[in-house]
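Pasting as-is:
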Amino acid sequence: MPEASDDPRPTGQVGRVLFGTAKILAIFGGLLSCLMAVIVTVSVTGRYLFSSPIPGDYDIVGILCGCAIFAFLPYCQLRRGNVVVDFFTQRASPLAKSALDAGGNALFLAAVIMFTWRLYHGAIEMRQTGEQIAAFAFYRWWTLPFDIFCMIVLVCAIAYTLARDITSVRRGGNAPT
């Protein structure tokens, strides 16, 4: 399996669009992480100095953290940055590694499709119930369309990497160019 730094940028149009979209999402996720740091800093400082934290800071940070994680997932998948336990496969042939990667991606794809489907239905239910954050009028479902979009991009990223892994298996373990 190639290291994240060895994985070349895709040369095909689909791969380039997918990689570009994932990269934009990852940058946005990084901005959300920076925003979380600012909110926590301001809230803690306000709590310590003025006994006045940001109302709902825990909820805000939790929501932003969830959105950031969803935003990072497609880029991580395309860069092959997910957790890989290669202790047992260090001496395996490139073909065996490609086959294991393909199998793992197929399982991951099935799980992510199921999670996306349930996230969609959860969003509908949250919208119907009208649940709000207690500290201010923010409906909890408002961020879920973004999360669902990130999951759809992740499904595409997994399908793309799975197709590359299958091509690698067909080529005897040689990665596609």
